[in-house]
Amino acid sequence: MNTSLIALVIIAALLAGCVTSGPAVSKNTMGNLEVSVTAPQDMDTRAARIFVDAVFVGNVSDRLPVLHLKRGKHTVRVELEGMKSYERSIAIPGDPNHQVLNVELEKK
After folding, report:
1. Cα 7 from Cα 75, distance rounded (Å)
2. Could you tell me which residues come within 8 angstroms of residue 6 by beta carbon, excluding any fewer than 6 positions away?
3. Radius of gyration of the chain (CA)
4. Is residue 99 exposed (0-12), middle (13-18) or buried (19+ Cβ within 10 Å)?
5. What mean pLDDT is predicted for residues 29-50?
6. Distances (CA, A) of 71 to 33, 51, 101
7. For residue 62, is it left (φ>0), alpha (ψ between -120 and 50) or beta?
8. pLDDT tops 70 at residue 48
9. All domains of the chain in start order, with CATH
10. Helix (H, G, I), strand (E, B), or coil: what is residue 13?
11. pTM value?
12. 24 pLDDT band (50/70/90 cuts)?
């Protein structure tokens, strides 16, 4: 084998390891939003459902009050059985910003 063919095979192998499942995202296009949910004492906030731009992203938990969102405007909605729905538009400026959204749910 000649040297240029070996170099080509090595470069192809190295580049194959760099392929991701989606487009590369620069950190500055993302931002963190922490959602802090409180409710009256008799309500379990872990059952609260979080929606971003009308898409369900999960229930409140130890792992998910922090959302990693693309920079720009988003609508955050929090729902909990027996409580009024909370909805707010928020602008995510991008990394390294970390924002906190304090959600205080009220009974219907």
Report:
1. 50
2. none
3. 21
4. middle
5. 89
6. 11, 17, 16
7. alpha
8. yes
9. 25-104 (2.60.40.1120)
10. helix
11. 0.70
12. very low
